[in-house]
Amino acid sequence: MTIYERGRSRDLAVIDEWEGGFGWLAHPHEHGRRASHAVDGPGGIWLLDPLWTPDAVETIDDRGDVAGVAVCFNWHARDADRFASRYDVPVTIPAWSGMDRAVDRLEAPVERVTGGLGESGFELRRCEPMPGWSEAFCYRERDDTLYVPESLATAPGYTVGDERLGTGVLRRLQPPRAHLRDLEPDRVLVGHGAGVLEDATRALEHALAVSRRRFPRALREHGVEQARALLAAMRSEGGCATTT
Asked: Which helix (H) or strand (E) holds 228?
């Protein structure tokens, strides 16, 4: 199975449907299961780390106006340019310097922010656990929605055992406990795989609690495939704009 499929998407899979938004997989058959999200807000819809597919655009257009496009991980430039151009909005990116990697891969106008995403209600929490890794966790208190672009996921290679939400091998020894342990989300959306929409707080607490002690098992079961995924993302640099 291909880790990250390139080229035009033909098989949209809608995921994470709830009253305030939805998610989609542009390439549902790829191993990496890159997920994109459209989240409603007071000023319009916000697109988080989106991958292009015509069917997703049609669904977005049916929901209303787009207020912004956000890149929340420095390896997730993906198709933010294309969406920003279609909806005539800038690409919103956290202001910290680690996100410059994403900025360098965009041609659309960029707006750097610190506290949150426009009028969406999402606050940004900075996470830079190691060189080359710059991530923004997005949390909205009014509906307890949490978006984690990379540190936590449900795609193959992230979870082990009974985990419904898991930490990638690279983050197992440094889970984002300090960033997230005060939250009690009703839903956790992720950048890889379907989100957790039921009993989400318990899934989050469990993922953070067992991350370190399950590192040996995760390394044994997923170490090779996560190394392959990293290499695949790095090889894509010279070609398609969409990465992890």
From this structure: helix 215-235
Residue 5: pLDDT band (50, 70, 90) is confident
* 82, 58 Cβ separation under 8 angstroms: no
pLDDT score recorded for residue 142: 96
Q: Within a domain: residue 216? A: yes
Find, among 154, 122, 125, 137, the residue nearest to 40 by Cα.
122
- Comparing C-alpha atoms, which of 57, 73, 99, 106 is closest to residue 192? 73
For residue 200, the surrounding DSSP H or E stretch is: helix 200-210
Torsion of Cα atoms, 176 then 198 then 62 then 32, to 10°: 50
Q: Is 3 inside any structural domain?
A: no
Three-state DSSP at 70 gives: strand
Q: Cα–Cα–Cα angle for 242, 27, 244, nearest 5°?
A: 35
pLDDT, residue 239, reads 36
Kindly state whether residue 243 falls inside one of the protein's structural domains. Answer: no
Q: 84 in a domain, yes or no?
A: yes
pTM of the model: 0.94
Residues of the domain holding 40: 13-238
Split into its structural domains, the chain has a count of 1
Tokens representing residue 58 in the block: 């049609």
Tracing tokens 């949490």 back to the chain, one arrives at 146
HSE value, Cβ hemisphere, 13 Å, CA-based, for 132:
4
What is the tens place of the pLDDT at every residue in 179-215?
Answer: 999 999 999 999 999 999 999 999 999 999 999 999 9
Instruction: Give the C-alpha distances (Å, rounded to integers) separating 243 from 101, 143, 157.
Output: 12, 30, 17
Max CA distance (Å), the chain:
47
pLDDT of residue 90: 98
**CATH number, domain containing residue 230:** 3.60.15.10
